[in-house]
Structures
1.
Amino acid sequence: MKSMTGYGYGEQTADFGSLSVELRGYNSRFLELNINLPSSLMVFEQPIREYLADHCERGKVEVTVRLRELVSESEVVVDTPMALSYYKALQELSAALGLGETPRLATIVSMEGVLQVEKKRDPERYRPFLNQALEEAMRQFEAQRAREGEATAEDILRHVGTIETSLATVQTHAPQLEEHIKKNLRQRFQEVMGDLVDENRILTETAVLLMKYTISEEISRLMTHLKEFRRELKENPAPGKKLDFLCQEMNREVNTIGSKSPLIEVSQAVVAMKDALENIREQLRNVE
């Protein structure tokens, strides 16, 4: 089991400077990838997206790549036709105003578009450094998610144990529930009919009520769900969605048991199971 929250950082240095990758993970129902890259490395967005999708099932993952260059490989290009156009326009303006001034080079150079800086970058040059930094960040990210996931699993299992203990209490009192139904029904018949009670009628009505109010089926299904929950928690590396579904099913069975039983011991056990299930579902919001 892994947590959806985590952090990882990787950095590589080379003759050009340094390249770093930072990963941050947050809770989310689905996989959301937010990748921030320098414009010169945008070509690597899709490979990074595919790499993350291979390592993460759910959660929001933010990736920030920073490139720090010690030497900028740039070339200054002069747009001569534009410079000549500016020169001609300034000469005409000077003549029109009767100034008789010749346009200065500093003035023309300062005009927009005369000088252009072109950065010469080969993205492939950065690929091996980006890959290494990303892998290092992912190692840290996965390690933290695994540590948090292990702690979460222990807490979830503690709550599962509470449910199992409470269910055992319910099982113990299940025969008392059936006896309570039989006793109540016979008492009501006697109050209405006195000594004219039809024993066969009592047995028939008792059978109908037992079919309606017995909790043996709910107990059986709840036990099955608990076994499946433990198995999923142990074997599935990304069990979040399945465990949340099982919690919903268990909650349904627990509610049914609570609605059927008038026994205070069963009601107390139901409250304990519902509280444990709520805590489990809260923890599952951070599980992949």
Note: DSSP finds eight helices and six strands in the chain.
2.
Amino acid sequence: MNLKFLETFYWLAKLRNFSVTAERLNTTQPAISARLRALEEELGIELLFRTTREAHLTPAGHGLLRHVEVILDEMRRIRERLGIDDETKGVVRIGVVDAIVRTWLPTLFERLREQHPLLSLEVTVDTTLQLGRALREGDLHLVIAIEPIVGEHLASAPVCAYAMGWVCRPDLIPKKKRPLTPEDIAAMPLIAYPPQTPPARLTADYFQEVSQNRSRMSASNSMSTMIELASDGLGVAAVPPVCVEREIAERRLGVIRTTREFAPLSFIASYRATPRNAAIQATLEEFFGAAAAFCATRPPTMARAFEL
């Protein structure tokens, strides 16, 4: 059985598109069709059927896919043990949320350039919802978001967690000697996250039964936008203080002392469980290395890294 045919079948099953699979495997669409046809003839079963826009697995195809994933993953391990293609190269498409851009994404680039100079990154910055959709559709290889991306053949692991806090322009912090209560915060103009998003649920838990004045609330799905609005004096925003270290140092923002603490905000890596090529595996490992390097220079109460 031809290993190249199995790899072609795997990517067709994942991408559901002959032309996209051809691009992924650096070949032509007719070549992809020929490989699939040869595999089906060898096995004597139909593995895929086409609609006008997509390719879909037959029941027999679903059964074969589980075995193919194991075979390809084992072949990757064998090649690694034998030192075949041990040079990590290629393009890895990653997706991250704003908080990672503001903390250890530059460190990730530096580490990859030092350790894997032939590897290139394409970075998408978006919300957890959009990143999850792109990962499931095969547009991204790896994602760092604020909740695990759930889907068939996807795996997740926590990378780091940041403490959360309320920030605003320093001159807007109430001149009170005592820490502010959730009721005090709720009475201020709030720059919030859109409803039903993971960070919005975090702030909802913070306020619990506290009444909020919706007429004094603005919302944005971009942490960077929220930070700019808070810096301009338009309200208070809930963000990790490690994401606004520069603004705090420049006295554009200050952290409000409060009586109630947030639960930490976790950042989760999500990726296809198997098979992963050397470039994707190296990038995943450097996610954890870059996060650990960043968190090691901050108090553990503010930033904590996890191991892969």
Note: Residues 59-82 form the longest helix (24 residues).
3.
Amino acid sequence: MGLSTDFAGSGRMLQARARDTRRLWDALDNVSNDPESRDALRLAFTRRAAMRDAVNEPHEGKRRNEATWKITKIHWERSRYVYELYYKKKAISRELYDWLLQEKYADASIIAKWRKPGFEYLCSLMAIDKRNTNFGTTAICRVPLHLRKAGAAQPAVSTGCISCSSQECGRLGGPIWWDSPRPADLIGWAKAGCPTAEKPGKKRKAQEEGEEAELEARAAALRRGVNAGLRAAEADALEAAAAAFRGSAEKAPPLRMHDGDEEQKEGNEDGNDEPNEAEQEG
């Protein structure tokens, strides 16, 4: 029974590969003689086969979420390849680009996100889908590494991406995946300005520390959020609390000596170690 099932699965895979080969030759006949276009098609079909292999890969020894990490990475790579060919290198025509999107060789939704500021290297649409999280937030990979605490450089559970923030990915040319070569101390590397072999680290502004700075940062995030109008009162309360913290620290009186102790210290400095009248009477 198992042997027949294996033969059936192998037969379906061979049929799928043959179908893709026929579609490749049909597509090559429809494009011009431009070598860039032909190479783009060949690589697109190769990445599609790699995606099929990743889907059929056994999941033994992996956690449930880890089984989809490789699929997410290949999905990003093949969409990024088409995106850079059309928008960055201008190597393929609009007709070929539309055909690749229509045939699902690239994801039009994530490409549309890459064209927006702040999402230039987004790893997956799942990373910004707040419906999939317990607290209605984005994935941890969207938080820049230099803003994280020490040791918080783990991959996102849903995507396997450690960071797809533009600040770090702009230096490396893509997201930092769970299996990407990377510095041993990612947090320290990011706080040092993300230095590479070709470029020195970027200088970062010194950030204030303390409870009042954290409260002000949260209030600013609420005002920039989607429901900023509805959460204005909460932001005002956070700013008032931060002002109270800052004001109490500024208005705190300096430590000073008691008047009697101060007089006694002055007497000792003058060399007068004799007891006063009250001490003599006592």
Note: The first helix runs from residue 2 to 30.
4.
Amino acid sequence: MTATSPSLPPDGAPTPAPTPLPVLDDPAPPYEVAQVIAPGIRRIVARNPGPFTYTGTSTYLVGQGTVAVIDPGPDRPGHIARIQAALAPGERITHILVTHTHEDHSPAARPLAAATGARVYGYGPHGSGRHGGVDPSQAFEAADWAFEPDVRLDQGAAVDVGRRRLVAHHTPGHCSNHLCFADPSCGAVFTGDLVMSWSSSIVSPPDGDMAAYMQSLHKVKALSAKRLYPTHGVPIDAPQAFLDALIAHRKDREAKVLAAVTAGAETLDALVPQVYRDVPPAMHPAAARSLLAHLIKLVDERRLVADPAPVADARFFPPNASC
């Protein structure tokens, strides 16, 4: 997704263009092949490319001898077999760490655990990071509703994998139970879908929360990582600059929302074509989910008002407008 020149809504009022996202290409990764991408870190890309997974899910094997798997991926026997085949003689998988419970990240955890005897670690079931949970009938994402970790991790929990220590950081926003895992010994942070190297993340209410997402980006930035390992796309070698650009992109998108509402666009249907002119129309339904998350954040901050409430079929106005 790249930005275009500033555009004009129907009444001629200018809308600011978002800061272009930094994009790191990964055009042809070798599928289902374990590649050593750093000392003690192997990457296997699942063959599940798509508009939301880019080239596929990157499963990471961390450690030597005693190995942790981060984001085992979709429940596909071929992928699970390749994870096990990546082990050197004498190695064993002892920990399976899940960043969050979307169908391209966590479903392979349980069959891999059954095959290896490893324990599964995560924040909790889908929606567990949101007060009151999430009603499946109100969810729009492809979630792994069956997920239940053997060990629940919260902010700051440490997982020792051989000589490595991985520290869990609760980073809600994309998903309320989202975790990032930091390895302070080498400055690595495994970012799941909070930070991807090819696109920004979809933030889909009710489990997705834009205010929490922005806070989580700042939390990861404060870790001062040397390298980020997203679950979709290649590693990020300039984390601070990349995070600054991602935060600026979101702020600029928010400015476009405010400008469009001020110019008279009141509904999601009216706002999406204006706020996401730089996004292909085929992706507008997904963009509408993140747009709703922006609108909810702005209403919570009293920078917009919603009639009757900040939901998908509401009308949105500046706070000084008459509803």
Note: The helical segments are 77-85, 109-116, 210-222, 239-262, 268-275, 284-300.
